[in-house]
Amino acid sequence: MDKKYISTKIVYEDSNFLVINKPSGLIVHPKNKDDHQPSVTAWLVHRFPETATVGEDPERPGIVHRLDKETSGLLILTKTQEAFLYFKNLFKERHIQKSYLALVHGKPRYARDIIDSPLGRLGMKRTTRIVGKKLLDKKEALTEYSTLKDFDKFTLLEVRPKTGRTHQIRVHLRSIGCPIVGDMVYGKPSDKGLRLFLHANKLEFTAPDGKSLSLELDPPTDFNEYIEKLESWTNK
């Protein structure tokens, strides 16, 4: 099995679903039938063959939400159709609380704030610019953030998306002049070679069996090591 599967660790599991620690660099599901790169769905079906028919799309078995390829952290996967429908509804009704750690360039104007900017799509890129004839699928988007640490030219934020739009956090943070470090789509070209410093670190929800769960996951080693470097440079 591909080496990227090795770091796909199970954080929580019961008979209905599991939560994994998705590593940065691993896609959640293939783009199409010709996409054969390693994926979470391939790992899931290999580990739990019964999940192959779970969901509404045979190309995305067990998937009720997603993380971008370069984003690491907590991801819910469903084992049964009943659990799939249950979590699909939780996300639709916004009954799942998600939190991320994001290292960004610069410093936000406010230490805490809510970004309330609808997102649209221009070609393959998401944008907060809502004027122009070519803009597609404009949708409401809300993102709350708070500052955890200030560095010289960077800021570590806790980010809590209130809606679940594609690339929402990345686009919203860029819109306030603080693109995420390592973002090669919405960030700075000078970051080339760095990972995307976005990590899904917390999930809070009620499981299908009625149990209230609060899961928290530390960032991976490379994320922590970069933060430590920034701390040492700041303290010099």
From TrEMBL:
Active site: D68
Coiled coil regions, renumbered to chain: none
Enzymatic reactions: a uridine in RNA = a pseudouridine in RNA
Enzyme Commission identifier(s): 5.4.99.-
Keyword Isomerase tagged: yes
A Pfam family reported for this protein in Swiss-Prot or TrEMBL: PseudoU_synth_2
GO molecular function: catalytic activity, acting on RNA; pseudouridine synthase activity; RNA binding
CDD domains: PseudoU_synth_RluA_like
UniProt GO BP: enzyme-directed rRNA pseudouridine synthesis
Keywords on record: Isomerase
Record flagged with keyword Isomerase: yes
Domain Pseudouridine synthase RsuA/RluA-like: 16-174
Domain of life: Bacteria
Role: Responsible for synthesis of pseudouridine from uracil.
Family: Belongs to the pseudouridine synthase RluA family.
Protein's recorded name: Pseudouridine synthase
